[in-house]
Amino acid sequence: MKRRIAALLLWLAAGPALAGAPPLAEADVIEFMNGFDAAERTGDVAAISAALAPDCRVEMRATAEGHEHVTAMSHDEYLTDLDDYYGSLHDVAGYEYRSEPARATIAPGGETARATRRVTESFSLDGERHTFHVDETATLERRDGRLVITALATRSRPD
């Protein structure tokens, strides 16, 4: 009986390796997030869509005038929102996008990872300069041999 429990614990700990998939590596997650950042920087909604799992859930939190607003969206709702957002950038002047390097944490067992980063977006509208800081947290896993984001949470606040 003790051998069965020990074998089961070993199997659970080895998880992805025993299933044929290597555990996630921090370097792979960072490389993936760099590609996601490039897609966001250029407004490439097709590339953003490819990075998201079809069942990805997105939660956006925004603080404005002392109040926090929370919006939960599905994959498709988020892509529609992005299309609208990138389209609206034609109405602003001096749009700037800056991002800090992503940081990755691999979960025990190597099946999932969490990546965090900060994005800062600035633009002028009606003669007024606006700057927003957005903290992103992405949960990633490997599906069908490739990394995808299964959950994306953002928290934005004005400067």
Task: Give a description of the structure.
With 159 residues, the chain is α+β, with helices and mostly antiparallel strands. The protein has a single domain, classed as Roll (Nuclear Transport Factor 2, Chain: A). The chain is built from four helices and seven strands; from the N terminus they run αααββαβββββ. Strands 1, 2, 3, 4, 5, 6 and 7 form a seven-stranded mixed sheet that branches. Helix 2 runs antiparallel to helix 3. The longest helix has 17 residues.
Number of strands: 7
| Mean pLDDT over the residues | 88
Main pleated sheet: 7 strands, mixed
Total tally of structural domains: 1
| N- to C-terminal distance | 60 Å
Q: Provide the gyration radius in Å.
A: 19 Å
Give the amount of beta strand, in percent: over 45%
Q: Helices and strands, in N-to-C order?
A: HHHEEHEEEEE
Number of helices: 4
Proportion in helices: 25-40%
Task: Output the CATH topology.
Answer: Nuclear Transport Factor 2, Chain: A
> Could you say which overall geometry the principal axes of the C-alpha atoms support?
elongated
